[in-house]
Amino acid sequence: MATNVKSNKSYQGDVAALPSPQAPMPKLASLYLDFEKELYIALGRTTGYAIRSRRLADVVTFIRASETTRVNKSGLIEYLASGEAAIEYDPVTGECLGLRVAAGVTNLAANSENFSGTTWTKSGVSTTAAKTIAPDGNVSASPFNESTDSADTVHFMQENSTPAATVGSPVTFSIFAKANTASVIQLVAQGAVTTTQFANFDLVNGLRTRSSSGILQTSMRKYKNGWYRLSITITPAGTASPQFTLALVNDVTSAAALPAYTGSGKGVYIWGAQIENWDGATPYIPTSGATVTRPDEVCTVRTDLDFMAVDRGAIFAVYNMPASLQAISGVYNAGQAIVCLDNDSLAEYVSFLNRRISNSITNQNLAAAAKIVGSSEVTVEVKRLGQVRNGHQSFISSFINGDMRVFDGINKYSGAPLVSTQLNRLMVGRARTTPAAVSNAYLKRMVYYPVTLTDADMASQFNALS
Question: Highest taxon of the source (predicted)?
């Protein structure tokens, strides 16, 4: 006689098939930071206690001892209070780029919006304050118009308060500009260089149309309502002031530096000038009669959350590069750190950063670096992940003493560094190295695992999280 076994309960489902209670954080992970969707999860390794929050401060400590600016969801430049983290958005598409951790710099242009101030010297041009809507939504942008002439003349405005440069230490000049009755503007460095350096920008077609050979880099980032942020970076050959200059060129896209022509009154709109001792343009710092410094931004995961292993782990990160590249020269920054695990009192770390290989924009790539006291740093170079303007990049890495592997979605790179057994801190967007390797990039999402991962696990996690 057959026996039929029947349940006396209704089917409850397969518990093993249920997602982790901390989903979408992977089951092996103990930290999940999603800056795009504003979801932050930390799981205590020994206590089992979990924090799941929409509030960044519940998981992360963010420090900046001043106000700053960011691009908000509406695409406008917004002013943030001291200590408020900057979650950046694309100014045109509105896409969330991620958490920005910016380097501390000074805007040396004492009048960033008042072009009638004494720090600007004009010849053949005029400006009028507050005549149109600026990139921050306020009516504070100025027309920059050529004079109406009877003979050829040069039409320019020069910032005259910038202090002397340091030989070999890059300086960047940036400004917001918008086409009006003219469409081409020229950014120029007349001082601290052996020959005048310049770049021409077409504000209608969104193109840099000519650049002199001594420019380290240029950038042109599009904003709402026809605005662009333009920049040039020079490497000074002398100690004079760079004498950064704006010029109109009669809409000739191929114009040489500071051309003379007979003006008819055409012009563009300008706003938000910035001069900084840095490799590229960093977030805008408004000034009004004096220079202003934005201190370093420091972002660390709370050390009391008990999420870290002291001697091993794995990291996944997806991030966006800035429109103006950083850490090109190696003068100010040891690299652009995406994330760093270290000891808060010892020079021991595992760091993931875009690092300069030589003084070349194209010769940079992501490096996984590890160091312990008494030994030299050992790196694993991820050659496919180089600095690319506005680039969207991601990687996953597993590390323990003698075994570090990095997977970029296509290739695996490996090395055998000595890894600290005293890791107790995770820093986002900077490293403990001196200088601090502040990224100026945008971290979109990061996952930390307190365990090592196999190659198969790394590929699986990368594909699921990317």
Answer: Bacteria
